[in-house]
Amino acid sequence: MGSGGGRGLDSQVIMVAAYLDGLGVGPDGTLYPSANDNASGVAAMLEMARLLKESPYQPKKTIVFVAWSGGERQEGLRVKDVMNAKLGFPSLSVESVIELSGVGTGDGKEVALGEGSSYRLTQLFQKAAGRLGVATTTRGRGPHFGAEPVTAFGGRDALSLYVSWNGSDRTAHTPADTWEAIDLDKLRQAGESALLTLSVLSREVKY
Question: N or C: which end of the chain has fewer CB within 10 A?
């Protein structure tokens, strides 16, 4: 979505992404519900899109929402592939990417901004979260904590921000990652902080 207004800012893209694949059923028949990792990220992303569409303050930049597969195969989001998939998109410039994963619960008390997050976007998110009374940490544990960092094929020029709930690795990739374990207050805090960050990004040249 984009308003198409304001000094040609609609040629700049902010991408909000969440991987939608989970482990499914194991070889022994064990079910891995993957509610937090990463149905919570997809749910938060969709709610952000709904609220932004209904807001009277429409974005000046173009926002692309992406649900993608490959996160549980340790693949990285291929930004260039996403932009090449839609007619006219290759001519746009992706300025920043916000990735949501494991935002629905965790044994920590803060939203975790993961390794590889841009300093500028981290500062912006911390400021937005602070306005909402939400604590953040840059030393937390997301759902893939301890895994080798993945860089998408071809690299990524855009600034990136990786948003999770601290301690979301506790139930990730286990049968305990169920809907019943989702903490709606944590999901709300992470989602509202991400939405406020996105709102500023989508309307400001400097942040």
Answer: C
Question: How many whole angstroms separate alpha carbon 193 and alpha carbon 155?
Answer: 27
Query: Number of H helices and number of E strands within the chain?
Result: 4, 8
The distance of Cα 73 from the centroid of its chain, to the nearest Å, equals: 17
Closest CA to 174 of 105, 111, 76, 112: 105
Place of tokens 């990786």: 162
State the DSSP code for 39. I
pLDDT by 10s per residue, the chain, length 207 = 554 443 466 889 999 999 999 989 999 999 999 999 999 999 999 999 999 999 888 899 999 999 999 888 888 899 999 999 988 888 999 999 999 999 999 999 999 999 999 999 999 999 999 999 999 999 999 999 877 555 544 457 899 999 999 999 999 999 999 999 999 999 999 999 999 999 999 988 766
Contact 96, 124 (CB under 8 A): no
In a domain, 24, yes or no: yes
Distances (CA, A) of 12 to 15, 39, 203: 10, 28, 11
Per the structure, the complete domain to which residue 196 belongs is given by 9-203
- Residue 74: CATH number of its domain: 3.40.630.10
